Structures are given as structure tokens and as C-alpha cells.
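Re: weekly structure request thread

Next one in the queue (490 aa):
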Amino acid sequence: MFTHINDYFLGVYKDANYVLQQKARIIFILLIIIFLCIPAIIIMDLAAGQASAQMLITVLVTLAIVTGAIFFLKSGKFAIASHTALIIPLLATWAVLFFLDDSPYPICRLDTIVYIPGIMVLLPLVIARKKFVILIYTAINTVLLALYVQAAAGWFNLDSTIVLDFFVDNAMFIVVVGLIGYQIYKINKNALDRAQELTDELELLNRDLEKKVEERTRELNAALEEMEALNKEVIEARDSLWSEMELAKKIQTILLPDQPRISGFEIAAYMKPAVEVGGDYYDIINVKGYDWLVIGDVSGHGVPAGLIMMMVQTSIHTVLETKPDAKPSELLVMINSVIYQNIKKLGEDKYMTITVFSCIKDGRFYYSGLHQDIMIFRSARSSVEIVETNGMWIGLDSNLQGMVDDCSFTLDVGDTMLVYTDGITEAMKTSGNNYEKDSRVVLFGQDNLAQILSKSGTGNLDTIKTAILDGLTDYECNDDVTFMAVRRLQ
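Done, posted below.
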């Protein structure tokens, strides 16, 4: 309910700067308090039998002023609303005290006057936010109090000692209120000034972000156009040169890195396309002083899977050429929007499991994306550590923002990381005779791969590669077999 009230009366300020929003909210709350207090005052005076025509006129006039100020505020006229809310009631209060109040008890009138500084303090805080206004209003209040006390002493024949004592007490009160107001002014000013600075910085960052997004969009659109042209060329090449399977194999192998290398690391990679070609993809990218690793697998087989893999490779290289220091999750979000649109254009129901790694100094890796678990052979313990991947596959949703995040691990000197595709873990063999009732299908599995890495991890990377391939000898591989081993040397 309060949100609806705020939107109804202060909605016009939603695009204003932060300071004006807060000042409008303060004025609105003050007006509502006064508006609610006026009927209460009327009821209490009527119940006590102290109501008078002068009092009723004064209250009704104040009510009209406050109502008008509320609607000035609602229409966006903050300056008129704030002055109407604060200055006019202030002047009306003084007028009532000097000209309309006929109470026979002057001390009651003198006591009433000390409430005025509270209203005075709100003026510089909300309207001007200037410290000299507090000093001027405090001085004016003190002078007006002195004049009023002197006049009251003559009108009611008050004892001079009482008058002096009352003036001193209330003058000190006005000064104290002024000092408190000054301190509140400083706190309020510093807070609002800082808020305004942050708002300005945020607006500047937003403008820069919008500009960068536009630039990245243009770059990705250009990449998309380039990939569409490549798609046409590939289709033409397929029709004129290769069969579908030959083309798919060509696409899958032509994109592999020629000389994979990362400073301070040794790398061994292997890919063997299956008879029915899938969409396995690995990459080592060195761009502008940054090193990246990629492992992924497109769902399905044949040319469409190879094309999607080619799109992913092109998108990743395009983005990293312009932003080599991107976070892994940011890279996935950027390429996904292009891949999702391209998959729709191909009319294919496909997706891609993928994990991207950003290699930071001192063996630190940041990674993102959902693919097979990462295996790390820890040389100090001669044991294998399993690191799970998480997130979302690309190509399923148009926007991965919030679905992928960044995680990290560290390779110590001598440690070896192994990443792979499911062509290894889902390789199968039949135990027993195919014609026997107890024959069953056995998968190669992740545990078997981890045992091989654990036994061969102390050897060189060629030893690890040979051990994995030897382990697959008795298994039938119906999918691509792809893996990449990375060892930290220094």
C-alpha cells in the first residue's frame, strides 16, 4: 500500500536525481503528518470546549495550504510545494501568536513560540541545504522572541525577572535547536552529496556500459554475418567436394590448434572422430598476453554438430580478440546469444556442453560452464582430485545471465589437469557372451579414467595419453574420443 501511495504522489520524481527524490519524500511525509494532525487538533479542542472561531479559521486555512502543497508536490512543482509547506505555515503561526491569540495566559503563548525553531530547521535542510540559512533563521527567531516577550510584558504587566528568565531559557533553547540543526545539516549534506556523487558515477558507468554493449553487439553481429557467409561456403563445399561425413570430419579437425602452448605448462591433446562424427571441440587460445583453454561437445552428430562447433570456435575467438580479459562466465554469456540464434536459423534442436578456462599467473585457473568433471592429479599426494563443473549448457536459452558463474582452482608445480568428453566415459563393452542371459553392457566410466590418471600421473604426458588409449582398447567408442592434459612446469 505504501508503495502505491509513494508512486501516486511522488511518481513524477522517479527519474530525478537522488537528492531531489529524498527531499520530495521528506516534504511529503511532513505534509501528511500535518494533514493528519489537523483533524486531531480540532477534535481535542472541541472535546475540551476550547474551540474558537479564530482557531477554527486558522486550522482550516492551514489544512487548505497543506492540501494545496500536496498536489503541487504531486504535479512535480517541488519548489512551490516545499515553500508552501514550510514558509506559509511558519508565517501563519507567527501571525496567530501576535494578532489572533487572545488567551489570558501569556506564558502559554510564550511556550508555544519555542516550537517554531523546529520548523525553521527544516527549511535549510530540505529547501536550501545551506548552513547560513540556519544561522539567519536562528537569529531571526531570537530577535522575534525578544520582541514578543517585551510586548507581552507590557500587555500583561509581567514581572521583569520572570520575563528575563523566560527569555534567557527560550533563547538558549532556540540557539541549541539551531546548533542541532547545523549538525543535522552537515550529516544530511554529506550523505546527500555522497549519494549524488555515486548517482553521477553510476550514470556514467551505465553510459559506458551501454556503449560497450553496443560495440560488442556490433562485433557479434559482424561475427554472425561472417559465420553465415562461412555456413554458405561450407554447404557449397560439401555439395561439390565431400560427402556429409567427410565434411563433418574436416570441420571438426581443421579447427584444432596447430601448436598448443601456454607459458610454464606442458600440454598434450588428443581427438579421434568417431565413424558417426560428433561435435567435440577443444582449443588453446593465446591472445594479447592471455591464455584460454576450451573443452566442449555439441549434442548430436553429423554436419549440423560440426557447424555449431565451428560457430562456437569463431565466436570465442572473436570475443577474446576484443576482450581478452573477460571473465569465463562473461565469455559464455556473450557467445551464447549468437549461438542460440544460429541454432534457431539452422532449425536444429541442439545444445553444447562447454567449459572455458582462463589461465592466470601462478597456476590459477578461473573456469565456467557445465561439462564433464575436471580431474586433477596432485603430484604431492599422488592422488586424483575431482572438480565438478556447474552452470548451464549454451544454445538452450537466449540469455545465460545469472545461470553461469566463475569458479577457480590452482595447479601446483607438477600437477596435471585432465579434461575430456563423454566419448571416453561412455565407451562400452559387453561382459560375457552376447547370447548368454547374464551378459550386460559395461561403460568405461569416470572412476576407471581416474584410476588410470592416478597410476600414470607421475609419468610424462605421453605416458598418460598412452595409458588412456590402452585402457580404451577393449571398449567400443561410438562417439568422438577427445581429451587434453595440462601439466604445470614452473
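The longest helix spans residues 160-240. The chain has a mean pLDDT of 79.
Next request, please.
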